[in-house]
Design brief:
The chain is an alpha/beta fold. The protein folds into two domains: 2-234, Rossmann fold (3-Layer(aba) Sandwich), CATH 3.40.50.300; 249-457, 3-Layer(aba) Sandwich (Rossmann fold). The chain has 14 helices and 27 strands. The strands form seven sheets. The protein has a seven-stranded parallel sheet with strand order 4-3-5-2-6-7-8, sandwiched between helices. Helix 6 (130-141) runs parallel beside helix 7. The longest helix has 19 residues, at 439-457. It is globular and about 75 Å long. Residues 249-438 form the CobB/CobQ-like glutamine amidotransferase domain.
């Protein structure tokens, strides 16, 4: 089936150009016009989709070519974009930056795979005519650049008329307006990127301020026209495993400390029969009643280590569940929570769950970062020995024991290392996975949850 989905991809020459700021301005402006919208993020970033959801009050999801592959990316795009008047794909890093010194799995690769027109977000600080040279370079670096227009960010309003005229006359693409420097709408960041949406002071006022500026100085109608030029895509039905037995209740940690989940991973679990029950390791006294499996996602436990330590009843509840054999998937921050201790940002050690005999240590630099492929060295909760899982890592904290159930191979340079604590009921480590990479992993997890439930009844 062929599906028509108006869409654009926002890209930039490099990180820090303001893609997220411009994205929020546009989404908020179109939302205030009453348009049905959809938003997406290129790559594995969890935090930018949180901003999309905060702006839109609807789910936003990731499109990651390395984790998901082209076919699954296109199907997820069309599933969420169906019926939307405008879909915005937010790029990552520089437009032509991908894995290693290639374009693979980057913004340009996503535009190619989804046949999406691109709007380049160019930082206008500290330059004038040189901005045009920068745009020309991006237009000509690849003959199929797909760049259809430019939005200038942090631009002096006095420069815009000349830039617009020269861009459209010399390059034949649209100048779609600009945002001036707006100190009152700055979005804060920390070591993993932007702070989460829930932490931004006066977020709604900042978003309204951005939207009002976009209404004045961005060509929103022209942007819609570019989106409507997107090529139709062919949609195939998502091939899912058969829905498993029962309806196991899965406890999903979600609060200020644990908030990194791929929305489509959770949706897949529900489509395969799971009932997801949210809980807070920070404030709840115990796991939700009747749960038969547990997801401990990534986040910022190191920033809330003292509060997690004070909640001893929850730590004991989680430890008892893991030791009793409740199936558990724990990623990055969730993995650190299962440790004996965890150092906070000041280097002070705090008691954690103690289900894994290791300690979480603060470091002063980024540890293993980027895409890799895991190979299972033995059968485990999610897969059989020899199966391969694409993953992403990004963390500053380290463990005294990262596990050895899998061998990881970095996508950019082939470097290898052991990782993951895994058994028939546990998958815990720094790597982030996406269940839609291979829905059989989700099916195996849920089947283990059903078996655990049956054992509890016998």
């Amino acid at each position: 089936m062929t599906v028509y989905a108006p869409r654009v991809l926002f890209a930039a020459p490099s990180s820090g150009a303001g893609k997220t700021t411009v994205t929020c301005a546009i989404l908020r402006a179109f939302h205030r016009r009453g348009l049905h919208l959809a938003a997406f993020k290129c790559g594995p970033d969890y935090i930018d989709p949180m901003f999309h959801r905060e702006v839109l009050s609807v789910p936003s999801t990731n499109l990651d070519l390395f984790l998901l592959g082209e076919d699954m990316v296109r199907q997820i795009l069309l599933e969420h974009a169906r019926g939307a008047a405008f879909s915005l794909l937010e790029g990552a890093m520089g437009y032509y930056d991908g894995i290693g010194f290639t374009e693979r799995a980057g913004s340009y690769d996503l535009a190619r795979a989804t046949r999406t027109p691109v709007v380049l977000i160019v930082d206008g600080r500290g330059a004038a005519q040189s901005l045009l040279a920068q745009v020309k370079g991006f237009l000509t670096y690849r003959t199929d650049s797909r760049i259809a227009g430019v939005i200038w960010n942090r631009l002096s309003p006095s420069l815009y008329p000349a830039l617009q005229q020269r861009l459209e006359q010399e390059f034949g693409i649209r100048s779609l307006g600009f945002l001036p420097k707006m100190d009152a709408a700055v979005l804060e960041s920390r070591h993993l990127g932007l702070v989460t949406a829930a932490e931004v002071d006066k977020l709604q006022q900042k978003m309204d301020c951005l939207a009002e500026q976009a209404e004045r100085t961005v060509d929103l109608d022209g942007l819609l026209a570019v989106a409507q030029q997107a090529e139709p895509l062919s949609q195939e039905g998502l091939e899912l495993p058969e829905r498993g037995r029962g309806r196991p209740r899965i406890a999903v940690a979600r609060d200020r400390a644990f908030c990194f989940y791929y929305a489509d991973s959770l949706r897949l679990l529900e489509r395969l029969g799971a009932e997801l029950c949210l809980f807070s390791p920070l404030t709840d006294a115990a796991l939700p009643p009747g749960c038969r499996g547990m997801l401990l996602g990534g986040g910022y436990p190191e920033l809330h280590a003292a509060e997690l330590e004070r909640n001893a009843p929850m730590r004991e509840s989680v430890r008892a569940a893991v030791q009793d054999g409740m199936p558990c998937v724990a990623e990055c921050g969730g993995f650190l929570y299962l440790h004996r201790t965890l150092e906070d940002a000041q280097g002070i050690s705090h008691q954690m769950v103690g289900a894994i005999a290791a300690d979480g240590k603060r470091t002063n630099r980024l540890q293993r970062f980027g895409y890799a492929t895991l190979t299972a060295l033995r059968d485990n909760l999610l897969c059989k020995a020899g199966e391969r899982i694409p993953i992403h890592e990004f963390h500053y904290w380290e463990s005294t024991d990262s596990g050895n159930a899998f061998q990881a191979e970095k996508a950019s340079n082939g470097r290898t290392w052991p990782c993951i604590h895994a058994s028939g009921t546990l998958f815990a480590g720094f790597p982030h996975i996406h269940f839609c990479s291979n829905p059989r992993w989700a099916q195996r997890f849920l089947e283990a949850c059903v078996q655990y439930e049956e054992a509890q009844k016998s």
